[in-house]
Amino acid sequence: MPTLPITVEEIPLGSPQIKPFAYFPWRIYHGDPHWTPPLMSDYLGSRLLGTLGLLTPQHPYHEHAEVTHWLARRGGEPVGRISAAINHRFNEFHQSAIGFFGFFEVIEDYEVARVLLDRAREWIRGKGMKVMRGPGEYSNATHERQAILVDGFEYDPTVDLTHNPRYYPEFLERYGLRKAKDYVAYTLRVQDPAPERLVQLAERVRQRRDIETRVLEMKDLVEGIRLVIQIYNEAWANNWGFLPITQGEADTVAEMLRPIIDPGLCRFAYVNGEPAAVLGAFPDPYFALRPRWKWYGDSDLVRMARVLALRRHIPRIRLIFYGVRPQFRRLGIDALLFLEAKEYAMQKGYQECEPSMLLEDNVLILRPSEFMGAHYYKTWRIYDLALE
Fold first, then answer.
1. 8-state DSSP, 311
2. What is d(CA 34, CA 156) in angstroms, rounded to the nearest whole number?
3. What letter would DSSP give residue 82?
């Protein structure tokens, strides 16, 4: 029986066809016990939740980017999707000419993947770019949802991290894409005693009168998250793929985290009253957002209701923001913040902590993570393809 031809529809930003584009992954992952997507309102927006969707023209991302999308069909049935984007702010910051492909989802059929990658490649080359990079959502700045999983498929993703079929890396490498960078995740058991050497180091730091620590104040949540981002932007400035988070993006993060935030897991260190370091860990809402594939469905309202019902019983936390400003490094401040957060998490009954996404070669983060008792368990990959 002959195979039906593949048809590909380009979907510009603002098109009503963006909705089937957004919902397509639910077809790919139906019944997958690990896959956990963000709320659909994160993509399409919601007046009820007061969110601007990333796939809508109103989202701040589009103030500094050009984007388009494609949905592939065979016999009228969706079989794959992809986006292409030029993030002008990223290219200006890095003095680069990179175009990004993202929102990559495809059935287990390489021909569909090839056709979609061809469309993204042609569009990106037509914009004068020299490299095609991805996958991500729209692009691959450090703070975006990005990369594909290449190791650790048997584990659930935590908030804002991706999960995908095992055949994705093979499809991308078959097309000619090559590894640009890996990100890794570590995990540690919260209830295990802290390593003695960590306790001793933290105690020495505590004895210094010029260092103090504070927890995030919920009454000043927006200002607190802005301070988290300020320290993060400075601490991570020289890292691969970094792009400063804007104040508007920081405010969006604050509103996203408000329902589940636990202030005791977010801590600041000050040296002589000056902000020096931050540790920002958060209960993992994906514990409650994971689709249940039940008769009552997995709508945003159903999933959000689970978050609100379970938010004080989430056993896992993700360590997202962890940075020391350059002039305050090698003082042991990171050990003090980590131990204080760990002691608090133990008292609250948390079971697991995941520091992620960590650059594979960032020894300033990897070594402290191992020092604190964490061990590797997952890898994601970003790919490049030269267009010259």
1. T
2. 5
3. E
The verdict on domain 188-377 having CATH code 3.40.630.30 is yes
Question: What distance lies between CA 364 and its chain's CA centroid?
Answer: 20
Pairing type for strands 77-87 and 65-74 reads antiparallel
List pLDDT tens digits, range 56-70: 999 989 999 999 999
* Contact criterion met (CB below 8 Å) for 131 and 177: no
Give the separation between CA 152 and CA 382, rounded to whole angstroms.
16
Q: How far apart are CA 127 and CA 96, in angstroms?
A: 13
Helices (H), the chain: 18-23, 25-28, 41-44, 88-94, 110-126, 167-175, 196-206, 221-235, 247-257, 286-289, 300-310, 333-348, 363-371
CB 94 within 8 A of CB 88: no
Reported as type and span, the H/E element at residue 149 is strand 148-151
In the chain, CATH 3.40.630.30 covers 6-182, 188-377
Cβ proximity of 136 and 382 under 8 Å: yes
The DSSP letter of residue 276 is E
Query: CA-CA distance, 129 to 229, in Å (whole number)?
Result: 30
Residues forming beta bridges with residue 7, ordered by sequence position: 73
What is the mean pLDDT of the segment spanning 145-174? 96
The answer to whether the pTM exceeds 0.90 is yes
- For 6-182, CATH gives 3.40.630.30
CB-CB contact of 138 with 100 (8 Å): yes
Q: E-strand spans in 194-273?
A: 211-215, 266-271
Structure tokens at 7: 């048809």
